[in-house]
Amino acid sequence: MNIHPSKQQLLDYCEGALNDVDGFTIALHLEQCSECKRLVSELEHSCADSVFNAELVNDSSLNIDEGFQNMLATITDLEPTGALAFVAPMRHNATVTTPNGKTFQLPPPLSRHAERISDWKNYGGKVYSASIELDTQARVNLLYINEDAQVPQHTHKGEETTVILHGGFSDEDGHYHVGDYLVRDASHKHAPFTQKGEDCLCLTVLTEPMIFTQGVARIFNLFGKGMYP
Questions:
Q1: CB 33 within 8 A of CB 1
Q2: Whole domain around residue 11: which residue ranges?
Q3: CA-to-CA distance for 215 and 222, rounded, in angstroms?
Q4: How do residues 114-131 score in pLDDT, each as one tens digit?
Q5: Does 1 fall in a domain?
Q6: pLDDT digits over 43-100, tens only?
Q7: Alpha helices (H) along 59-157
Q8: What pLDDT is stored for residue 10 in this prediction?
Q9: In CATH, what number is assigned to the domain containing residue 188?
Q10: Are 106 and 213 found together in one domain?
Q11: 69 and 112 co-located in one domain
């Protein structure tokens, strides 16, 4: 794994400052990356300490022991409901089967949306996509690139975020592995491809359509609309 979210993105994740989709993609990366998971744990502790210390400064007249006891009493008086009723919820891992019959296990953040994954559609050649119907304006898809296949060269009107779930792929800038977290925008132009004996399952989020820059795929750029997978 070579590519990770920035420290600022991880801090925003800890503080709940990201939108739902960005938080979702970060959570998927954390499932695969022990390094970022450790950093998030450190940032969460730091954020908690900052909030706790700020509350003590803002209410210096409150005795620390008294404040702790009041907080503890409030928590223990809460009636657990819904997901909170489970002390240790089971981590259910759903699966997805690709058009060529391969079955992959989905990480927990994606498993909870398994019923919202549509049927696969052919994206051209040996590339397939399945949309995930989430409550967001961005387009969220599973993308499966079979072995020895290529996505037509393209750039982006907005941002494309990709998290690799299984396998890997390459483009003009290098090779990417499971867990890698890639963000591409209008300053990037690439043509992802897999090699013989290699395939790739990834999650992609597009805020705007792709713009194809080579070959017959450019027909999808008519009227400036571009194309979603």
A1: yes
A2: 7-85
A3: 14
A4: 999 999 999 778 999 999
A5: no
A6: 888 876 565 555 545 555 545 556 555 555 554 455 544 433 333 344 568 999 999 9
A7: 64-77, 108-111
A8: 93
A9: 2.60.120.10
A10: yes
A11: no
